[in-house]
Amino acid sequence: MSVHVVVHDRGRELSGVVRDGESWGAAARRTAASVVGEPLPVDLSGEVKHFVVDHDTVVSLRAMTRGDLPDMLRWRQAEHVARWWHADGEPTAEAVEQHYGPRIDGMSPTRMWVAEVNGRSVGFVQDYRIAEHPEFALVCPRPDAVGVDYALGDPAWVGRGLGARLLWVWARKARHRFPDVPAYFAAPDHRNEASLRMLDKAGFERGVWFDEPGPDGTAGTVVGCTLDVATVLG
Fold first, then answer.
1. Mean pLDDT calculated for residue range 133-155
2. Predicted local confidence at residue 1, as pLDDT
3. Cβ(187)–Cβ(212) below 8 Å
4. Domain limits of the chain?
5. Position 129 confidence tier, pLDDT thresholds 50, 70, 90
6. Structure pTM?
């Protein structure tokens, strides 16, 4: 069955069909070839894959520096983030520096990124090859994938449809950084429906539930969500 794409641009709807061997992203770019701007996902969870070219809101990603640690502390302390990141410990200034500093300095296989909207820092993304984290690789259904975790830390930007766009921007960068990786993988808490829905919209597919060991010695039930790189990004 043919997969259809729709690219929204300034009130217009540009419609197309995914060709054999073509990714959803490539089909969206071809469909919107006459438009200046990158089609970003609105909702890729349905039979029709919806993208948008937003001329007013620029979502970008840059490497985190130690100068971003005060923002990281504020984001980790935000109520909507702290609820799901409690396993990483109490977000004090000292703990945040000890936890994320080595990653920023390149002393850890986990890389940290700052999400920006129109140049304003609004949240963070972290990624890693799952195989480089043996305890997680043992329980994860996709040890060959690149893992990704994320949070929009600034409450003012939550619920505005930016999460899927942010993950898409990250995925496009990851495609060049990890050209050999067939899939990206995220595992939100099974109760975190907002995060799960965001992953749906970004092109991830929900899979098995499993118990993930946390750094504090506890285990949480998470939902494995996988983005197939060839199908979605190409």
1. 94
2. 77
3. yes
4. 4-52, 59-232
5. very high
6. 0.95
